[in-house]
Amino acid sequence: MITVALADDQPLVRSGLRMILEGEADVEIVGEAADGAEAVALVRAAHPDVLLLDVQMPGVDGLEALAQLAATTITTRVLMLTTFDLDEYVYRAMRAGASGFLLKDMPGEDIAAAVRQAARGGDALLAPALTRRLVDRFARDRPRATAPALDRLTARELEVLRLVARGLSNAEIAADLSIGETTVKTHVARVLMKLGLRDRVQAVVAAYEAGLTSGTTG
């Protein structure tokens, strides 16, 4: 059973998410929060597998709540919720350690699938149609952060990282490189380990900030 907590200041949104997820046989809602402070307290108390966290809330917002949770040893995976498909707050959340982001108007089956994927701890969640636009808009035009040590990666690992940054799934990367999907998963895992990254979201951000997607390595 996947345990899920919901945090959004709009009761209607929380109700909608609850209705969607309670219809799934393998999902259990363990609590709701109306702001970031309540969300942090809820996660500390219930230790859900996944937290759906609204970006913009009064008082303690989603970003501050995420920062507070990231400073603990809590292993809850956080999926940020947003109404806007090009929202700088979401990019900041990705850098801060969110496992991904979802649009509130996504189909219910996609939200349920995202929760399962996050709970498995596999590929981190990026709404596929938004990945390139979101990260490209807010990463390409920013001053470069300290580039990750890309020289630690093999040529094939660099190639895989570049495709990850383009928003491709493991299956799509496997097809593009004519290798097995299991091999892709191994390469992604090695990239994360070598660069000290937690998940695929952070790999996307790191690739953009290092200039990998523009043909340079920073």
Structure description:
- By secondary structure, this protein is an alpha/beta fold.
- The protein has 2 domains: 2-133, Response regulator (Rossmann fold), CATH 3.40.50.2300; 143-214, Winged helix-like DNA-binding domain superfamily/Winged helix DNA-binding domain (Arc Repressor Mutant, subunit A).
- The chain has 10 helices and 6 strands.
- Strand 5, helix 5 (108-120) and strand 6 form a beta-alpha-beta unit.
- Helix 7 (155-165) packs across helix 10.
- The longest helix is centred in the last third of the chain and has 15 residues, at 181-195.
- The chain starts with a strand and ends in a 9-residue tail after the last helix.
- Pfam families: GerE, Response_reg.
- This is DNA-binding NarL/FixJ family response regulator.
- Residues 146-211 form the HTH luxR-type domain.
In short:
Helices cover 50% and strands 14% of the residues. The protein is an alpha/beta fold and 218 residues long. Strands 2-1-3-4-5-6 form a six-stranded parallel β-sheet, sandwiched between helices.
The quaternary structure here is single chain
Report the strand count: 6
Strand order of the largest sheet: 2-1-3-4-5-6
* Secondary-structure element string: EHEHEHEHEHEHHHHH
Q: What is the strand content?
A: 5-15%
Name the shape in a single word: globular
Name of the CATH class of the largest domain = Alpha Beta
Give the total of domains.
Answer: 2
**Count of alpha/pi helices:** 10
Structural class: alpha/beta
CATH homology group of the largest domain: Response regulator
Mean pLDDT: 83
Low-pLDDT runs of 5+ residues are none
